[in-house]
Every structure is written in structure tokens, then in C-alpha cells.
Specification:
Blueprint lengths: L13 H19 L9 H32 L7 H22 L5 H29 L2 H7 L7
Organism: Oceanobacillus limi
Protein name: Hemerythrin HHE cation binding domain-containing protein
Pfam family, one: Hemerythrin
Length: 152
């Protein structure tokens, strides 16, 4: 059996990628909320979502927006559809997270919708955005980012 090859990620971006792995687990839990596939109660799912988002998920977005993208902008145009979509998705995810976390009742369709959006967003960053950044930034600049990017 052939060994699966993972995505090779620059060392400086690995903390964000590891946090993405946690995000994919959260997305799966949200997508399964209220279905027979879920082994968790809605309360347990929402506790996991809260633990993921406050403050780690919010900080993750900030690091991408305030550290990673400005560094990228020094070497390439941020006026690309992939970057614009990423930022718009950040707004959508923030909005949906706030609505879910502040809701008085569990909203299963909204939980599932957020799960789909979160998964799609993370996969886009891993498969499209991060490779764009790794290609554009020189090695020295990527190394400079290392102390500023965190796992969670």
C-alpha cells in the first residue's frame, strides 16, 4: 500500500496548518450536528465550537489578515479572486460564529451550514492560498513570520 503524501508546508505556516486540522474536526462535528452520524450532543458540539473559536479561531484570522497577507502583499498583488474570497469568507464565518454562539436555542441548519463553510474555507487556504504565499515569499521573509504565527 502506498503511503499517503501530505501537503508539504513551510515551517512558518505549520502552526496555522495544525490549527486548520482542528478546524476541520470542528467543521465535521458541525456538519453532523443533529444527524445519526453525530456521536455528540448539540451541547457538546457547541462547547467544542466555543473552545475552538474563543479566542484561538479569532486570533488565527487576525494572524492571517494582519501578518500573513501584508507580508504577501509585499511580493504579490492581493487583488486576486482567491484572496478576496478568503477575506469575504472570514467575514461570513465570523458572522455565523457570532450568531451561533449568541443564540438562545440550537439552530441545527445553521450549525451544518457553518460546518460546510468552515471546511471549504480551510481546504481553500491549504490547497490554494498557502501555496500562493509560499511561492511568492522568499525564504527569508517566510522565516521572519515564524514567531508571529501560532497554532491556537
Amino acid at each position: 500500500m502506498a503511503k499517503r503524501k501530505g501537503i508539504i508546508r513551510h515551517e512558518s505556516l505549520k502552526p496555522l496548518s495544525r490549527h486548520h486540522m482542528v478546524g476541520l474536526h470542528i467543521a465535521l462535528k458541525l456538519k453532523r450536528a443533529g444527524t445519526e452520524e453525530s456521536r455528540l450532543t448539540l451541547e457538546e458540539i457547541m462547547q467544542d465550537v466555543t473552545d475552538f473559536w474563543n479566542p484561538n479561531g479569532q486570533n488565527h484570522f487576525r494572524e492571517e489578515e494582519e501578518i500573513l497577507l501584508p507580508a504577501y502583499a509585499q511580493y504579490a498583488s492581493v487583488e486576486q479572486s482567491e484572496i478576496i474570497e478568503m477575506l469575504l469568507e472570514h467575514v461570513q464565518i465570523r458572522s455565523q460564529m457570532t450568531r451561533l454562539l449568541e443564540a438562545e436555542e440550537y439552530d441545527i441548519p445553521s450549525m451544518q451550514e457553518l460546518g460546510v463553510l468552515l471546511e471549504s474555507h480551510i481546504r481553500k487556504e491549504e490547497r490554494v492560498i498557502f501555496p500562493m504565499i509560499e511561492k511568492a515569499l522568499p525564504e527569508e521573509k517566510l522565516k521572519e513570520l515564524t514567531p508571529y504565527l501560532h497554532e491556537g
